[in-house]
Amino acid sequence: MEKKLDSSGEKKLKCGDVSKCFQLLESILDGEDKDASKEVLKEKLSKCQPCFEHYHLEQAIREVLKNKCTKQSVPGELANSIRQKIEDIK
Amino acid sequence: MSEVQKKKYSDKEKNNIFDHEFMPHIDSMYNFAFRLTFDEDDAKDLVQDTYLKAYRFINSFEQGTNAKAWLFRILKNSFINEYRKKSKQPSKVDYQEVETYYNSDSVDYNITSDLRIDAVKDMLGDEISNALNSLAVDFRTVIILCDLEGFTYEEMAKILDIPIGTVRSRLHRARNLLKEKLHSYAKNMGYDTEEE
Questions:
Q1: What is the pLDDT of residues A66-84, one digit of tens each?
Q2: Shortest CA gap B106–chain A (Å)
Q3: Residue A23 and residue B172: Cβ atoms within 8 Å?
Q4: Which among A26, A64, A71 has the least Cβ separation from residue B121?
Q5: When comparing pLDDT for A52 and B142, which is higher?
Q6: What ipTM was reported for this prediction?
Q7: What is the arithmetic mean of pLDDT over B69-85?
């Protein structure tokens, strides 16, 4: 059984159930689990080091992906060529 | 599958839906297509085919509902049916194997705690992009839909024709795989990822 935290605010260095916790943190970051999110987040991030690290790493990866992988520019003529093709099949 | 209530749109309504609900998603569609095919011409063809199909089946689309998810679903199905064989990278995944493995609780989580966040943040677009591109198509797809396009689990389940539980576990597995790739890049960049 895990020891209860004392009031010094030390973080647990081992998470009791990484599989469950990490999946929950991911679903919170994904915008699912909206009800539980605030409470659970505060609790986990302030008390558990692995959860804290996992959460921030996940967040960083998402930001980076979003900033760096969505800039494929659409070929200029594509929209027009689609419209043209649609006119043809009308 | 429940029978979709068919609409009967006038030509004017069709054009209106097409211009205001479908075309605004062309950037996202092209990005998705490009990440599936790795080829500009294939991506263009795929997007074009998707829009032509969308127009042809526009009566199955209910105005005001999620057009983006609807279009992504068509694009993904077209990719599977027509473009997958042409695509340059092999992209087969044995779900059964990976999902059983994931569910067995034996996934190595060490990788998440020893990779420094700074290393990820400092990566260049190409490194991030290559890491994402190197994932098998089914893992890549869930990351694109969720992290790049912001679809909900429920929308992803509909786009991919899989249960929500599978979306969740596939996404989780995909992220661990992506982290492994990023971890190698970080190491090559000289980040000391082996913390005490």
A1: 988 887 788 989 999 999 9
A2: 9
A3: yes
A4: A64
A5: B142
A6: 0.80
A7: 90
pLDDT at residue B2 above 50? no
Helix B164-188 and helix B153-160, axial crossing angle in degrees, nearest 10: 100
* From A19-23, A44-48, B4-8, the region with the lowest mean pLDDT: B4-8
User: Which residues of chain B neighbour A61 with C-beta distances below 8 Å?
Assistant: 120, 147, 175, 178-179, 182
Residue B1: is its pLDDT beyond 50?
Answer: no
Confirm or reject contact between A82 and chain B (CB < 8 A). yes
Using a CB-CB cut-off of 8 Å, the residues of chain A touching B105 are 19
pLDDT score at A1:
39
How would you write chain B as a 3-class SS string?
CCCCCCCCCCHHHHHHHHHHHHHHHHHHHHHHHHHHHCCHHHHHHHHHHHHHHHHHCHHHCCCCCCHHHHHHHHHHHHHHHHHCCCCCCCCCCCHHHHHHHHHCCCCCCHHHHHCCHHHHHCCCHHHHHHHHHCCCHHHHHHHHHHHHCCCCHHHHHHHHCCCHHHHHHHHHHHHHHHHHHHHHHHHHCCCCCCCC
Mind telling me how many Å the CA of A38 is from chain B's nearest CA?
Answer: 19
Task: Considering only the beta carbons, identify the residue of B23, B112, B148 that sits closest to A70.
Answer: B148
pTM of the model as a whole: 0.81
Quick check: B145 and B159 in contact, CB under 8 A? yes
Tokens at B89, concatenated: 């990278």
Mean pLDDT of B68-96: 77
Q: Using the structure block, give the residue that is written with the tokens 């294939």.
A: B42
Closest-CA residue in chain A for B131? A65
pLDDT range class, residue B107, cuts 50, 70, 90: very low
Q: Is A52 on the interface with B (CB under 8 A)?
A: no
